[in-house]
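Supplementary Note 3. Input sequence used for the single-chain structure prediction.
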Amino acid sequence: MKKTFRRSLACLLLLPVLLSAACQQTPEPAPAPPEEASVSAPEQPQPAAPDGTSSAEAEPEPEPLSPPEAEPPREEPKEAPPPDVPPEEEPPPEEISSGAKAPQTAQEDPCAEPCPEPEPPCEGTDCQSPSGEEPVPETPPEEEPVQEPAPSCSKLYILMYHDVVEGDGSGCNDWTITTGRLREDLQWMTDQGFTFYLPRELAQGVPLAEKSVMITFDDGYASNYTLAFPLLKEFGAKAVISPIVRYVQEGVPGYLTWDMCREMAASGLVEFGSHTYDLHGADDQGIRRLEGECQADYEARVLPDLQTSIDLLSAELGQPVTFFAYPNGKTEPWAVQFLAEHFSVTVTTAHGPADLSGGLYSLPRHNVTVQNKASQWLS
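The predicted structure, written as discrete structure tokens, is reproduced below.
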């Protein structure tokens, strides 16, 4: 009986110790359990004391130990998201246990979503839009009609005048006109919208107008200055004068002087060309070869004459000489190379309008007389 009582008492004494040791071995305390009645050891039959009292009365029952109160869970600090996390992958801020939002370490992108990258152009007939609908083909821009360049004009009327006189024209030959006729021609060409050209403009490639004309005066009569030049200034018309240069150099009466030539050249309305130095005589030979003349003798006789006319004109007037009028309109194959090397434009006395598409050499002209006015050829 005594042994049984001692064992029971020993168990009751060891129970609180075991419970306390078990609590200390737990890594983290568990939440506090709901309040329950203290665990008590199973009631054992109490042996009667020797004096007749029960063991409970002899020794008071020890109070059961309650487990220690569980500590509140510790707040774990939230780790901030790494700064290189793109805005679209940044998780929403989580609330910590205290209810406050975790601070943001990276600046928020004002765009809610990143701009999508452009998609490559769709090719093929099976291409569909993102919505699944067939794409509407874009209407190509209308091509502007190609404007054909305006056709360049190549037709040029070249009028040939010589001497000018006053009066009614009685007794005038085919190489003489009156001031009345010249005024009438200039007035008509101005009213019809003709544009006047100089040889140097043709040589420079100035485009021709739809109505183009070039006025020429041959031989270099003094009337070209006294009577024709005032009319040219009145109408703003241009003209080229080709004198027989020896007549000007020697001051032959009835022909131009160098002072007259310089004044007209300075006006910008008149250009001077060559009509040879002294090969336009009473005969109609001009620069043609003589009968039985060899080419060497021909070149020794003709080419220096042409060169002299060029040298004097350019020296006295200070302008390059680009124009040559064949005496009597007669050409010569042996002179062609020299003329091409020294002149840009040459004319004959052949009748008709000139077509510049074939070049600027040996161009035909219209001879104007008292009976044949300019409008007859230009209409």
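The domain at 155-378 is CATH 3.20.20.370 (TIM Barrel). Residues 289 and 298 are 6 Å apart (CA to CA).
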